[in-house]
């Protein structure tokens, strides 16, 4: 066997190993636009100290691009318009704690789920009129949430539209709760932790899980990012990177 042939065999072998480990995709440094709200901590928000975007979505997409040779460009996008806009190709992808649903699959393609959240009722820390989700549902209390979310859909099923006040963003709903204009906000537990953060003495979650939701990134249906990103998600689950990011932003994080 010649040296040239041996070298060729080694090159092919290394390429196969790299591909098997998720390292076979190289996007050549191209820019990938990522739609985010920047008002949904700890997924995404503007860091007051730096004036820059921060959060889980920023970290995970920078990590994804490190692994498949791309550059993440984060673009502020409105909710829920970001879903339809991504489907039309305004953004290459969007990351905003988006629940995977069958209805949304008609508009966008989803990645594999990278996280599962649980919907809960968040209330003021001194709330004593009710102590469980069941007691809240049985009463005539006012519920707040964000328009166009699965939180709104579930809230409507549980208490009816007449008891819901919908807001353009969760921060406004949470502020209304803290000021006493609402009795509870229905929100994903991990996002709720982000809002509680510095407000731990003001806000709390009610006992009782309401619904479990898988989260995924969204793309236009013809996107070439779907498979390579799915591979990176699988690799990050395997090597512990995803668990580390979840711990950083949803366990240790304080806004």
Give the terminus-to-terminus CA distance: 62 Å
**Strand tally, please?**
14
Helix content: 25-40%
What kind of oligomer do you see?
single chain
Outline:
The chain contains 10 helices and 14 strands. The chain has 255 residues and is of the alpha/beta class.
Task: Write up what this structure looks like.
The chain is α/β, with parallel strands linked by helices. The N terminus is likely disordered. The protein is 39% helix and 23% strand. Strands 8, 9, 10, 11, 12 and 13 form a six-stranded mixed beta sheet that branches. The protein has a three-stranded parallel beta sheet with strand order 5-1-6, with helices on both faces.
Provide the fold topology.
Layout: H1 3-20, E1 30-36, E2 39-40, E3 44-46, E4 53-54, H2 56-68, E5 70-76, H3 81-87, E6 93-94, H4 102-105, E7 109-110, E8 115-124, H5 133-138, E9 143-146, H6 150-159, E10 164-167, H7 170-178, E11 184-188, H8 189-196, E12 203-205, E13 211-215, E14 218-219, H9 226-239, H10 241-250
Parallel strand pairs: 1-5, 1-6, 9-10, 9-11
Antiparallel strand pairs: 2-3, 3-4, 7-14, 8-11, 8-12, 8-13
What descriptors fit this protein?
three-stranded parallel beta sheet, six-stranded mixed beta sheet, alpha/beta, 255 residues, 10 helices, single chain
């Amino acid at each position: 066997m010649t040296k040239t042939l041996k070298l060729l065999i080694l090159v092919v072998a290394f390429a196969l190993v790299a591909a098997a480990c998720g390292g076979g995709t190289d996007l050549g440094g191209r820019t990938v636009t990522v739609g985010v709200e920047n008002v949904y901590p700890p997924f995404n928000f503007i860091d007051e100290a730096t004036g820059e975007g921060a959060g889980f979505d920023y970290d995970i997409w920078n990590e994804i691009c490190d692994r498949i040779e791309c550059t993440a460009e984060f673009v502020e996008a409105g909710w829920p318009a970001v879903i339809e806009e991504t489907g039309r190709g305004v953004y290459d992808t969007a990351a905003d704690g988006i629940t995977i649903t069958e209805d949304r699959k008609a508009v966008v393609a989803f990645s594999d789920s990278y996280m599962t959240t649980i919907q809960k009722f968040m209330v003021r820390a001194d709330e004593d009129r009710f102590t469980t989700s069941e007691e809240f549902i049985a009463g005539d209390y006012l519920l707040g949430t964000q328009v166009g979310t699965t939180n709104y859909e579930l809230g409507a099923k549980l208490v009816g539209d007449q008891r819901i006040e919908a807001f353009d963003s969760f921060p406004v709903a949470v502020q209304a709760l803290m000021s006493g204009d609402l009795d509870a906000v229905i929100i994903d537990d991990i996002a709720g932790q982000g809002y509680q953060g510095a407000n731990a003495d003001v806000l709390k979650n009610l006992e009782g899980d309401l619904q479990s939701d898988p989260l995924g990134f969204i793309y236009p249906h013809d996107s070439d990012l779907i498979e390579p990103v799915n591979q990176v998600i699988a690799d990050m689950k395997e090597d512990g990177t995803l668990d580390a990011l979840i711990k950083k932003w949803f366990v240790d994080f304080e806004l």
